[in-house]
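Worked problem 6 (solution included).
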Amino acid sequence: MGFSFKRFWLINLGIIIMSAGLYYFLIPADLAVGGVTGLAMVINKLVPVIPIGILMLIANVILFIIAFLVIGKDFGGYTIYSSILLSSVIYLFEITTPLEKPLIDDIMINLIYGIIIQGIGMAIIFYQNASTGGTDIVAKIINRFTHIEIGKSLLMADFLIIILAIFTFGPRLALYALLGIGINALVIDKVIAGFNTKMKVVIISEKSDEINDYIINEIKRGTTLYYADGGYTKTKKTIVSTVVNKRQYIKIKKFAQVTDPKIFINVSFVQEVLGEGFWNGTC
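Solution. The predicted structure is:
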C-alpha cells in the first residue's frame, strides 16, 4: 500500500481506540482476551513487577522477523510502529491514569465495551494492512494464505492464550475471555466488511453519454455500457453500470438528476470488489 498521511493517521487513530478499550476495560478486569496483550497479562499476573506495556514490547519482537519475511517490509514496518505505539500508549495510561480496580465493577460490561472498542481499533489497523504484532501477525499469515476472514484468523491464533488464561485466572475469567475473542472476531470482520462495502450503480438515461463521461473523467471510475430495448417503450436504451463508494455515488446521483430529471437509477451494495482501481489485499 505504501506510505500516505491518511493511512498513517488512521493507524494512529486505531491504536488510540484499541488502547482505550484494553486499558480502561479489559486489563483491569483481568480479561486476557488473547494476543500478546493476553499473554502479557498472564505473565504480569505471575510476575507483577514487570509492567504489561514492557512485556508486550518484548513479546512482539519475537514475531517481527516473521512479519518481514512472510508478509513483507511494508506490513512489517507498520507492525513494528503500531506495536511500539500501542505499548507506549498503554504505558502512558498506566502513568497518567493508574487504575487499582476496574472503572465499573461488572465483568460483562467490561468485556462487552472493551471488546467492541478494541475490535473497532483493530479493524482500522488491519484494514490499513498493518497489525499490532503478536498473534495479529499469525492471524495475518493465516488470512493471507487461506483467505479466512481476519477476525476468524485471529480467533484461531488467540485460542492458545485462552488455554493459558484458564490456568492463570481460573476457568470463569477464561470462559469470559473465550466469549470475548469470539465477539472480537465478529466486530473486526463486520467493521472491515463495512469499509469494503461498495455500491453498484446502474443508470438508465437518455443522457447516458454525458453521465458516462462524468463518471470516467470526474469521478475517475470505470464504467460498463449495456445496450437494451425498453420493455414498455420499445425504444433503444444505453445502460451505464459502475461500482463506487458512497461519497462518489452521491456526486453521481446529483449530477445525473440535474442532467436528466427522468433518470432511472438502481443501486445495490457489494461486499467485495477486486480489480483495477480497487485494493486487491485480503482482510
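Discussion: The chain has a mean pLDDT of 85.
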